[in-house]
Each structure stands twice: as C-alpha cells, then as structure tokens.
Amino acid sequence: MSTSARFTLPAVPAVLFSIVSVQGGAAIAKGLFPALGAAGTSSIRIGLSALVLLLVVRPRLGKLQAAQWRAVVPYGLTLGAMNFLFYCALARIPLGLAVTLEFVGPLVLALSGSRRWLDGVWVLLAAAGIALIAPWQGTGLDLLGLGFALAAGACWAFYIVLGQRTAALLPGSVAVTVGMLVATVLVLPFGLAGGRLLSLTPHLLLLGAGLALFSSVLPFTLEMQALKTMPTRTFSILMSLEPVAAAVSGWLLLGEQLTPGQWLAVGFIVVASAGATLTTARPQPALHGE
C-alpha cells in the first residue's frame, strides 16, 4: 500500500476533522490576541501558512501568465481581508457568533438570483438569526465586532466567486499558495504597524505555527481531499454545521457562554444554510472562511 493511500481519510471524516481543526485553530488565535493583537495574529497565521505552502507546493511564480496574475491577486487580497476581518471580530465577540454571522455571506451568495418561495424561507430564517444576535436591548455584544463578522462574510462570498475563477486558470494548490502570498502582503503591514510582532518570542512563534497548521494547512488539505470524491452539495451541507461546531468549541475551549436566544440564532442560520444548499441548483463549495 502506498504512503498516500495509508494517510487518506474517507471524505466525511475528512470534512469533520477539518471543521474541528479550524475551531481548534480559532481557540489558539484567541489566546494569541493579548500578546499579538488581531492584526499580528492574522499576520502570523497567513504568513506561516504561505511559507509552508511554498515549501510543499513550490509554485513557479515566474511562469505565471498575466491572466493568471489578474485572477489570483484579487483572490489573495480577498483571502487576506477575510481572515483579518474575522480575527478583528473574534477579538470582540464569541467564536460561535463570529462564525455564525460570517456564514451569512456564502448564504446570500447561494440564494442570490433565486425567485422560488422556498428560498424565501431560508432568507427569513437567516434574517431572524441575525435579529436574535443583534444587541437590541443592551446584550453587551460589541456592535463593531458584529460588523467585522458580517464584513468577513461578505469577503467570504467574494472569495468563493474569485476562487472559482482562479481555479479555472490555476491548479487549486498553486492558486491557494500564491493567494496566501498576496494575502500576506496585504495583512503584514497592519501587523507590523501594531508593533506587537517585534515582541515575538519562540513560544509565541510556536503557537503561531500551530495556528497556521490547524487553521489553514490541515483544513485545506483535508477539504481538497474530500472534494475529490464528495459531491459539492454534500460537502456544503456538512460545512453548514460549522457555526454549531464553533459555538461548542467556544464553550469548551474558551469558556464562552451563549444565551438561549443566541443558540437559537445559530440554529436558524445553520438550518438556512443547509436548506439553501439542498434547494439551490448549484451549491457553492464554501471552503472555510475563517
């Protein structure tokens, strides 16, 4: 039996392990915020992920054509903005709520252009979820954090569209590697401007390496592996579970408590996401946004 065959997971466990890995990475990220801030943590995650992918994939940057650069640069900028904005949200609101609100972006993309009455149900469910999360009565939630999460969701929707265009011109691994490089160029100046990267210690660097592994390298590998054999619709339905996984991870790993209304909001958006995936003609493979 070959080495690759021994380490290949079945598609469904691969996606589930990917979800768990990302939420574990988010817990590491939140632990780094006091020392590095959202910008510094985002810079470490994206920069180290780009370095690992460069060593593994070894793309020939000099061989890329102008059309390929025109596709991959916007893709990478969107990738960097998405991750940076998500960490800005995560620094202010619980993990479960940040991921739940970020999911609104892919959900809106999946429902865009639809005129069927059933898709209106998913829109109403998602809207009800957002309304339950919104700090209408002084719930203590940070309004700017909620805005950052929704902005990250908007970037996620653009990331999916731009990713599909880039994948048509470049192999997936090359597209993500070059995209990570472009994202690093975007985010690193913010991390350096914060000044906290200058106080980077070996311990923080080790945690940053774990963050890059669990949040980017491992999930990307598992998801690409799963998509080789799993229908896009099934993949997207499984990914719809991520807000619940994030809320549970926030509770278990970070001690973050959600109110019953916030848990209900998570449930509404999960059902809306899964329902939209089942009823739309061409579901989008919404790879991890955070």
Automatic annotation (TrEMBL):
SUPFAM superfamilies: Multidrug resistance efflux transporter EmrE. Residues 144-274 form the EamA domain. It is found in: Membrane. Signal peptide: none annotated. This is EamA family transporter. The chain crosses the membrane at residues 36-57, 69-87, 93-111, 118-137, 143-162, 169-192, 204-222, 234-254, 260-281. Pfam families: EamA. GO terms for cellular component: membrane. Keywords: Membrane, Transmembrane, Transmembrane helix. Coiled coil: none annotated. PANTHER family: EAMA DOMAIN-CONTAINING PROTEIN (PTHR32322:SF2), INNER MEMBRANE TRANSPORTER (PTHR32322). It comes from Hymenobacter metallicola. It is a multi-pass membrane protein. Belongs to the EamA transporter family. Its main location: membrane. The lineage of its organism: Bacteria, Pseudomonadati, Bacteroidota, Cytophagia, Cytophagales.
